[in-house]
Specification:
The chain has 463 residues and is an alpha/beta fold. The protein is 35% helix and 21% strand. The protein is built from 13 helices and 21 strands. The strands form six sheets. The protein has a six-stranded parallel sheet, with helices on both faces. Strands 17-18-19-21-20 form a five-stranded mixed beta barrel. It has a three-stranded parallel sheet with strand order 7-10-13. Helix 11 packs parallel to helix 12. The protein is globular and about 65 Å long. Bound molecules: iron/sulfur cluster. Iron/sulfur cluster (SF4) binds next to helix 5. The site of iron/sulfur cluster has 10 residues, from helix 5.
Length: 463
């Protein structure tokens, strides 16, 4: 069978980035992308431990793959099944015990060793035996030193991982256990990868890290550089027109980063700044090391530096011990800050975290009711923010065709999806768009020219 690779990615943008890197390390071995698991010789499930029911979803997928693999073997073929990512890191032994048809368990910090693990599986199979291999170490050598340049051209908007791991130990979160201690890539490595991505067509880079603004990579001067300084350096790359970063911890926003939001035109006025709760009592129980007052003052400082900064956030409802009064505090914080968008989740215990052992878990119906109320409030704020854009002219970076023929789609500075009637040749360009209306998930607009008239194309399709 030809070497075909299928990767299913669960979860966050870090995992999307890691999946692309796994494809990169296997490309020199002759692996090309398969459309389905059924047509692949190697299937990788790149798991996420943050979302609810991650483990159940994984075992459900593994059950399906077991049947595919058995059918392949009955035909005299072979299939290698690998589980990667944070669930593999945290629950590797359980995976191999419950799903003995899995061949490889590999953690996020060792994905560069995937070719060696595949070779080991082949070697054992050639000897007529079968043995699963597991690599969930936190190696001394950073994986980035071993990752090859991607064979695939990046999109107009590309991810660039600059930081991994976390030292904050929020009491609900598995990241410090699954991704390990904070590590920041050296500035020179980040700049080199950014330059390559831009040379191959990327116009926007989103810098990724579990706690990206804890970035402290060693600079060319030998001193640690923060994220603000890194953003200034990246902004010097010609043709890099937009820089974003995610995800941030409020405690790690420093003056230099705030100043970068004021000074660096390419740094977009949109910041995902998770707060998790509006109750000081719950924030303390979460070990967030900031209170509501700190968060609000931080948002004020950021908005003083960049008046149009749109703020996004994450919320957890039903954290152990959360009372109605705590939840009301969260609603008050939402009203006070005004979020352009936000994500809300019901608390669900992650094995191995302090919060999972708390006795005062909130009953499921209470969590459900609070989640519905929170989402309604957040949705209203998002709609309000989007509606306020109608009639405005926004610079939109077009990155793909729209869903319908004759449309192009892109993003506003505030990360809103924007759709216009336009030829796809504008993909890769920033164009001014007059926002005309809202769809459920996007803004609808019209291209305008410098003279403020609609383009011929717009006039034709909108007549
Ligand atoms: S800062 Fe973020 S990644 Fe780190 S422990 Fe807290 S929630 Fe997890």
């Amino acid at each position: 069978m030809t070497k075909k690779l299928f990767i299913k990615t669960y979860g966050c943008q870090m995992n999307v980035y890691d999946s692309a890197r796994m494809a990169d390390v296997l490309a020199p071995l002759g692996f090309t992308e398969a459309d389905t698991a059924e047509s692949a010789s190697v299937v990788v499930l790149n798991t996420c431990h943050v979302r609810e029911k991650a483990t159940e979803k994984l075992f459900s997928d593994l059950g399906r793959l077991r049947r595919v693999k058995a059918a392949r073997q009955a035909d005299g073929g072979a299939m290698v099944i690998a589980v990667a990512g944070c669930v593999a890191q945290a629950e590797g032994d359980e995976i191999l015990a419950r799903a003995p048809w899995v061949d490889i368990v590999i953690g996020p910090q060792t994905l560069h060793r995937l070719p060696a693990l595949l070779a080991e599986v082949d070697r054992v199979a050639a000897a007529g035996r079968r043995r699963a291999v597991q690599d969930t170490e936190f190696p001394a050598e950073p994986k980035f030193d071993f990752l090859p340049e991607s064979a695939q051209a990046p999109g107009v908007s590309a991810f660039l991982s600059v930081q991994e791991g976390c030292d904050r130990f929020c009491s609900f979160c598995v990241v410090p256990y699954t991704r390990g201690a904070e590590y920041s890539r050296p500035v020179a490595d980040v700049v080199a990868e950014a330059t390559r991505l831009v040379a191959r067509g990327a116009r926007e880079l989103t810098l990724l890290g579990q706690n990206v603004n804890a970035y402290h990579g060693v600079g060319p001067d030998g001193a640690p550089w923060g994220l603000g300084r890194l953003a200034r350096r990246l902004a010097e790359i010609p043709e890099l027109v937009r820089i974003r970063y995610t995800t941030s911890h409020p405690r790690d926003v420093d003056e230099a980063l705030i100043a970068a939001h004021r000074d660096v035109e390419q740094l977009m006025p949109f910041l995902h700044l998770p707060v998790q709760s509006g109750s000081d009592r719950i924030l303390a129980a979460m070990n967030r090391r900031h209170d509501v007052g700190f968060y609000r003052r931080l948002v004020d400082r950021l908005r003083a530096a960049r008046a149009d900064l749109a703020v996004s956030s994450d919320f957890i409802v039903g954290y152990p011990g959360e009372t109605d009064a705590d939840f009301a505090d969260t609603l008050r914080l939402i009203d006070a800050v005004g979020f352009a968008q936000a994500f809300a989740f019901k608390y669900s215990p992650r094995p191995g975290t302090p919060a999972a052992r708390a006795a005062n878990q909130v009953p499921e119906p209470v969590k459900q009711a609070r989640l519905a109320a929170l989402q309604e409030r957040l949705h209203a704020q998002q709609t309000h923010f989007n509606r306020a854009c109608v009639g405005r002219t926004l610079p939109v970076l077009f990155d793909k065709p729209g869903r319908r023929p004759g449309q192009a789609a892109g993003r506003s500075p505030y990360l809103q999806a924007v759709v216009v009637a336009a030829p796809t040749r504008i993909i890769g360009q920033i164009r001014d768009v007059r926002i005309a209306s809202l769809n459920t998930n996007s803004l609808v607009g019209m291209l305008i020219t410098e003279g403020d008239g609609m383009t011929d194309y717009d006039a034709r399709v909108s007549a």
